[in-house]
Amino acid sequence: MNSSDLRQKYLDFFKNKGHKIIPSASLIPENDPTVLFTTAGMHPLVPYLLGQKHPEGNRLASCQRCIRTGDIADVGDDTHLTFFEMLGNWSLGDYWKEDAIKWSFEFLTQELKIPLERLAVSCFAGDKDAPKDEESANIWMNLGIKKERIAFLSKEDNWWGPAGETGPCGPDTEMFYWKDNNEKTPDIFNPKDKRWVEIWNDVFMQYVKNKKGEYLPAKQKNVDTGMGLERTLAILNGKENIYETDIFEPIIKLIPAELDERKKRIIADHSRAIAALILDSVRPSNKEHGYVLRRLMRRIIAYEFISKKDFLTQVLKQVALQNGVEFEKNSINTVFSEEKNKFLKTLQKGILEYSKIKDINSEKAFYLYQSFGLPFDILKELDIEKTKNLKYEDFEKELKKHQELSRTASAGMFKGGLADNSEATTKLHTTAHLMLAGLRKVLGEHVIQKGSNITAERLRFDFTHPEKLSPQQINDVENFVNDIIKKDLPVWFEEMPLEKAKKINAMGVFESKYGQTVKVYFVGKDKENVSKEICGGPHVDRTGVLGHFKIQKEESSSAGVRRIKAILE
Question: Which end of the chain is more exposed for a tag (fewer CB within 10 A), N or C?
Fold first, then answer.
C-alpha cells in the first residue's frame, strides 16, 4: 500500500461512518497558544473540544500535517520525524468508547487486513484521580483481543492532557502491532518489548482538570484519535523503518551515496519540514517558528557543504512535487536559496576562525557553532587531527549547559524583573513603553511588541510592521517620545485581575506567562494616559528624568517584524 492509498482509505472509511472530512490546518496553530507548531490533529479543534459548535458537525476526520521539534535529536533512527502526517477522527460530544474502539478495530483488521494475532492494546490502569479503564478493556475483549494481550499502564503511558495546567483530559487506549516477521507473536503483551510498535491511539476526554488540580467529569465528552501515516505505512509494507516507503525513497535516491544513512534520513526529513513551513508562510529568522526553520535549513546545508556536491536543489524539487507545487515558481526555491547563500558566507567566516584555533575542544566547538553556525559534523570533517579530542557527548553537554542558562535567564525575565536593574536600564525600560505608544500613534494600531532586549547602554525593540520606516516616521516617533519626556508626566502602576487589564486595553507581550493578577504601568494622569502596559517593572517615577531619546537604527528582524535600536542621550 502506498501513502496516497492509505490516506484515502482512512478518510473514506470514516466518511462512511458519518464523519465530515476537514482539510489540514496550518502548521502555525491559531487556537492553541501552548505550542509553537501544530503537533497533532486536535490542535486546530481546541475551541470545539471545549464546547464550541463546529460548522461541519460533531463527527470529523482529517489528515493533519504536523511538526514536532522535540524529536529533532532522534531524527535519523527508524521512527522519529520532525514533519509527519497524522490521520485522526473526532467525536465532539457524540459517539463514545464503544464506537471509537469498534471502528478502530474494524479499520485495522478489515480495511488494512492486519491479522488479529499481531495486535495488542494498552488501557489506563487507574489512580487517585480516575478509575481503571475496565470499560475499554471489555470492549477490546468482546472484539476478540485476548486478556493476555491487554496491558494496564499508568498516566505516563495511557493518559492525555490537559494541554496546559487546566482543561479537558482523560484516559486513552493504544494499539500495538508485532513487527518481528522472524518470531511468532508472543501470547502475552509486554509493552517494554520494542518489537511491539504503537500504531494508533484513541483518547477519551471525559474529565476536566480545574485550578485546584481536581479531575471533574466533563460536560462534553470527546473522542480524539491519532494514527501516524508514515509509521503505519512502514508497518503495512513490512518495512523496518519509515524511510523505506514511497514517501521517502524518491528523496533519498537524490542524496549522494557517500553520506551515511543517518545523514540521508535527516536530509529527507528536514527537507519535507522545510518545504511545509515555507508553504505555510514561515520565513527564516532568529525567533520562534523562523528559528526552527533556519535551524533545519542550516543543518542540511552543512551536510551538502561536507559532501562538496550540489544536491539539495534537486531534493527540494522532489519534495515540492510531492506537495503538488512547481519548485521554480514557488517560495520554497527563493526562500531556501537566499538562506543558503547567507549561511555559506557565514560558514566561510567560521572556517577562517576555525583555522586560527590549534586544538578544538567542546568549549571552542560551541563558540564556533554559536557564532558561525558550524555544526559538529563539519568541525570533525575539516581537520581530523585538530578535532581528535573533540567528542560529540562533550559538545552536547556544552550545548545543553548553554540552553539551560538561556532558559534560566528567560524565566527570570518572564517573572517581570530585569537582569540589570540599574538606573540606566530602568530609564530605557520606561522609554520602551513610550516608544511603543509613539509607534502605534505614527504607524497605526497594528503595531504590537514582539520582543525587546535592554542593556544599560541601549534599547533594542522588535515590533510588527510590514515595511521600512521612512526618515519622517522615525523623526515623528522621536518627537512623540521626547515631547512626553518634556511634559514630565507621572509613571505609576495598579495591580488588577488580568481580565480587567484586557478590558482597559492594556498592552501585553507575553500574556500567557502572566498570573491572574498583573501590574499595569500607566504614563500620564488618570484620564490622560499616553501608555498603559502589563509589566513587572521597574520604572522611573516621572518621564522628566529620562533625558533625550534618539533612534540609532531601524531594520528588519524577520518577515513582518521590524527592529529599532535606540539610546537616551
Answer: C
